[in-house]
Write a structure and sequence with these properties.
- This protein is α+β, with helices and mostly antiparallel strands.
- It has a single domain, classed as Jelly Rolls.
- The chain is about 20% helix and about 55% strand.
- Strands 1, 2, 3, 4 and 5 form a 5-stranded antiparallel sheet that branches.
- The chain starts with a helix and ends with a strand.
């Protein structure tokens, strides 16, 4: 009986869903949002995400910008992933949408677009638990 109890205790410590410290995620998000995004950044959007829809955050440009990709990052560690959808509203009135799964290791993960002239960019995302997502649209220059 003791061996069975010890095994159950051991297994319960090893299994489980990863969790995110939402206060630490919020502090990370604030720090990333305060960083200089550099000359190649056309826009940066961020949001709290979770199992449901995060909604969509959109930025419109004063004039069309050549977007080559988007750098997406989220907080949570190597065992947490997020689904990120980035939409470009192209200069000719069309829309280009890409969705990627990224690891929430706080590092930028490039979602390539090629060379698309956009008048706006939007992003949305989901994750298995609440965390924060940050997406930067990157220009060719």
């Amino acid at each position: 009986m003791i061996a069975v109890s010890a095994l159950v205790l051991l297994l319960s410590g090893c299994s489980g869903t990863p969790t995110v410290d939402i206060d630490a995620a919020s502090a990370w998000f604030a720090a990333v949002d305060d960083e200089s995004v550099g000359d190649a950044a056309a826009a940066a959007v961020g949001m709290k995400v979770g199992p449901g829809s995060s909604g969509e955050v959109r930025t419109d440009f004063a004039k069309p910008a050549e977007i080559i990709g988007a750098d997406a990052r989220c907080y949570g560690g190597d065992d947490v992933t997020a689904s990120v959808t980035v939409n470009l509203m192209t200069a000719d009135g069309g829309q280009l949408t890409l969705t990627e799964q990224i690891v929430c290791d706080t590092e930028p993960h490039r979602i390539p677009f090629g060379d698309a002239y956009a008048r706006a960019v939007s992003a949305s995302g989901t994750a298995p638990m609440p965390t924060y997502l940050y997406v930067t649209a990157v220009t060719a220059g």
